[in-house]
TrEMBL record, chains A, B:
Organism: Streptomyces viridiviolaceus
Gene3D superfamilies, per the entry: Homeodomain-like, Tetracycline Repressor, domain 2
Name by which UniProt lists this protein: TetR/AcrR family transcriptional regulator
PANTHER family: HTH-TYPE TRANSCRIPTIONAL REGULATOR BETI (PTHR30055:SF234), HTH-TYPE TRANSCRIPTIONAL REGULATOR RUTR (PTHR30055)
DNA-binding stretch(es), residue numbering of this chain: 27-46
Entry keyword Transcription regulation: yes
Length: 228, 228
DNA sequence: CACTGCAACGGTACTGAGTACCGTCTAGTA
DNA sequence: TACTAGACGGTACTCAGTACCGTTGCAGTG
């Protein structure tokens, strides 16, 4: 019966102590002692006390980067959807561990802030990828890339949190549906550029009425947009 | 010639030292010494070494909260736009100080993370406000509130960063235009709910053609959506 | 003037995260 | 056996942040 490696024992000890005493009330010395290793060994495996909760953000970033790198111009949005699904699946595979982490980040402000900072790095990755894909350096296109990346990440967070709270039985189906909704918000980039030369603008909406009943208000919307 | 109050002297000293030696290379003792006060006094005025860079995030949060609180149901989106403009104006009034902070947050990861965490608090405020406004507790509405809040904040950040980098001469006009673009992405909430009962869906796009030329493809899109 | 209360300040001492460095033990190999 | 490399433990240090205490200065009050 050989003991599990120190890295695992440290993580187990940390989660257990955080549950028992709370995060701030647990020192690194406590964690190392329960894991049966020296304090130095803790910092050899984890850069900080916070990092023991988020072991593999770097790996996850690489995962996204790799998936996006395989995309051609016509498959860019598919790559984005795939990358988001990949991240979600990663958390789901963690199972109970992800839920314990969620319980901690919900209570401890320092951990929540760190989580948010990590998510911002994902968002940056998506934003740069989408901006490159658009290939249009104007301020307007840059804004659209920013909005799109923010929406993509928000959709992921929304589905993930639902699953973490036990409100979702099929998170993969939910993320696919959410991504469809996000992508539907944004026009194809080839069409958008033409609009700046004073074309017709059609805004997105959904209604119970049929198309013919909608035409008058459609026209009004279009004229309002081109007039303002 | 009376000296400025300690709070100001500390901020000045901190920014000066961060410029000279860098953030990590500057200790709180250094800052206090240059400001001519004791170390204790530093922590009386600023909760942490990072906080000296971001003095008034709490006040800004209150500003947003107050503006949103005055909104009625029909003026909710106006309140959101106003609140965002308020935040942007706050930074602009800081002028050079905001630009120095930007230079610091661009270099120091710890400061950038803190900035991001603060922005996330704004986003949460907007998300809760929008969700309340929608008054629809379904998962779909919750996602839409999340997407909208994320887009609102992303638009603000985009315009703010452009101004901070000196790429914008009229940031107020830019934020108004950006907010128009954001709000155009999202259908009115009364219309959205009907769509789930199998109504007509109109997707957003822009084109150089006029509306009549577009109708056939519009119909095709709608049938494709209701069929899938 | 003497007294009181209060607010801002300075100093000391402490906890705990994170870093640097050094010595030790052990497994694998020539 | 001798050598080497990696994982480990221990010590000592820096620095952020907290707790506590005493001091100073200034307002108002008798």
């Amino acid at each position: 019966m050989s003991k599990p490696p120190a890295r695992i024992r440290l993580a187990d000890a940390a989660f257990a102590l955080f549950d028992e005493r709370g995060y701030e009330q647990t020192t690194v010395d406590d964690i190392a002692e329960r894991a049966g290793v020296g304090r130095t060994t803790f910092f050899r495996h984890y850069r900080s006390k916070e990092a023991v909760i988020f072991p593999d953000h770097d790996r996850l970033l690489e995962l996204i980067r790799d998936r996006l790198a395989t995309a051609g111009h016509s498959t860019a949005l598919v790559a984005v959807s795939d990358a988001v699904r990949l991240v979600l699946l990663h958390y789901i595979e963690e199972g109970d561990l992800a839920r314990r982490r969620y319980a901690l980040t919900s209570k401890v402000a320092a951990l929540r802030d760190r989580e948010i900072a990590s998510v911002a790095r994902y968002q940056r990755l998506f934003r740069e990828f989408i901006a490159d894909w658009m290939g249009d350096p104007t301020a307007s296109a840059s804004l659209r890339a920013e909005l799109m990346a923010a929406s993509v990440v928000a959709a992921h967070n929304h589905v993930l949190r639902r699953w973490l709270r036990g409100e979702s039985s099929d998170p993969v189906e939910e993320i696919d549906e959410a991504m469809r909704e996000v992508l539907a918000l944004f026009p194809a980039p080839s069409a958008t550029t033409a609009a700046h030369d004073g074309g017709t603008t059609v805004v997105a909406f959904r209604t119970g009425q049929d198309l013919d009943a909608l035409l008058p208000s459609l026209r009004r919307v279009i004229e309002g947009a081109s007039g303002g």
